[in-house]
Amino acid sequence: MDVDDLEAHVRAMEQKYRHAEHLEARAEEWQTEGAEIVLSATHCWQDSEGVTAEARGDGINVGVLRPITLYPFPVLHFQRLAEKARVFVVVEMSNGQLVDDVRLALNGIRPVEFLAAREAMFRRTKRCLRLSAVLLANFRVSYLATGKTIRARNRTG
């Protein structure tokens, strides 16, 4: 393949990916309309509806965005929610792979916090999400009072 053919192929692939970004990127949302705080989770998704309802009952305006496709990543979903949301909290049983994707999608327009819910610490998804609700309650008080973000760090031991 010569250079011109290679360049044409790369441009065609870029166009195909841009097209897929708009048509194939998928995400599921729960009570995100007007949410100040958006939880993002994949593995901790099962009990999020109950935790979101509980947090809203405590006066915390929270919603949940679950990426379904990771490639292409649902960038437009995150950017749309960032118009109203003040902060995004990634709750994952991982080392933070999803938080990198969310930060790239938001490109610095909103703070993104990471709550590492390691399997050794949290045997059940519900516990993971209950802890995130506590974090959100604390975040709302500190963020609205000082305008600063907090850092959530869980230690295993």
Question: What does this protein look like?
Answer:
- Helix 2 packs parallel to helix 5 and helix 3 (75-81) packs across helix 4.
- Helix 4 (97-106) links the parallel strand 4 and strand 5 (112-116).
- The chain is α/β, with parallel strands linked by helices and 157 residues long.
- It contains 5 helices and 5 strands.
- The protein has a single domain (26-146), classed as Rossmann fold.
Topology (SSEs and partners):
Blueprint: H1 3-23, E1 27-30, E2 37-40, H2 48-57, E3 62-67, H3 75-81, E4 87-92, H4 97-106, E5 112-116, H5 125-146
Parallel strand pairs: 2-3, 2-4, 4-5
Antiparallel strand pairs: 1-3
Can I get a quick summary?
This protein is of the alpha/beta class. It has one domain (26-146): Rossmann fold.
Q: Strand portion, in percent?
A: 15-25%
Summarize the amount of helix as a percent range.
40-55%
CATH topology: Rossmann fold
| Secondary-structure class | alpha/beta
| Rg calculated over all Cα atoms | 18 Å
CATH architecture: 3-Layer(aba) Sandwich
Question: How many distinct domains?
Answer: 1
Shape label: elongated
Sequence stretches where pLDDT stays below 50 over 5 or more residues: 120-124, 143-157
- Largest sheet geometry: 5 strands, mixed
Helix-strand pattern, N to C?
HEEHEHEHEH
Query: What would the average pLDDT be, to the nearest integer?
Result: 78
| Distinct helical segment count | 5
Sheet with most strands: strand arrangement: 1-3-2-4-5
Distance between the termini: 56 Å
Oligomer: single chain
- The level 1 CATH classification is Alpha Beta
Number of strands: 5
